[in-house]
């Protein structure tokens, strides 16, 4: 099953941006994520349009947070990314006239819709500041950092 890590990766970026003193360039973020700066700009564009980040071009420019983490939820970021598919499961479409396939798809569809409603509701309750508050606990247990961004000047 193929997974989409875009939400997790962007959350990682946003939390690092909150800790970073200066704007972060697309190149820095790309290095951190192991991807091309063009992909970073394309991904961050949705967050900029939603008002969660801003960007300045040129020397000394880059990406900065436009809102405090306490005003951004997982749901906000998920929606700014274009609401990627939450589940890799899908409905069979091999025999749409088959009553068994219809029954299976009906049960699966209702169950997945309810799971998605519950998950999105929970996303709306989790503020990025709550995730950031977990850092001190982890830092006290960790011997050294493991994020690539720590090595970016």
Can you summarize this structure?
The chain is mainly α and 153 residues long. The chain has a domain at 6-86 and 127-151: Winged helix-like DNA-binding domain superfamily/Winged helix DNA-binding domain (Arc Repressor Mutant, subunit A). The protein has seven helices and two strands.
Structure, explained:
- This protein has 153 residues and is mainly alpha-helical.
- The protein has a domain at 6-86 and 127-151: Winged helix-like DNA-binding domain superfamily/Winged helix DNA-binding domain (Arc Repressor Mutant, subunit A, Orthogonal Bundle), CATH 1.10.10.
- It contains 7 helices and 2 strands.
- The chain has helices spanning 6-19, 26-33, 37-49, 74-80, 99-125, 128-132, 135-141, and strands at residues 53-56, 62-65.
- Residues 149-153 have low confidence and may be disordered.
- It comes from Microvirga aerilata.
- This is Rrf2 family transcriptional regulator.
- Pfam families: Rrf2 (PF02082).
- InterPro entries: Tscrpt_reg_Rrf2, WH-like_DNA-bd_sf, WH_DNA-bd_sf.
Question: What share of residues are in beta strands?
Answer: 5-15%
Number of strands: 2
The CATH class name of the domain at 6-86 and 127-151 reads Mainly Alpha
Strand arrangement, major sheet: 1-2
The radius of gyration over CA amounts to 19 Å
Counting DSSP H or I runs of 4 or more residues, the number of helices is: 7
Query: Strand-and-helix sequence, N→C?
Result: HHHEEHHHH
CATH superfamily of the domain at 6-86 and 127-151: Winged helix-like DNA-binding domain superfamily/Winged helix DNA-binding domain
Largest sheet, strands/sense/barrel: 2 strands, antiparallel
Pfam families: Rrf2 (PF02082)
GO molecular function, one term: DNA-binding transcription factor activity
Protein name: Rrf2 family transcriptional regulator
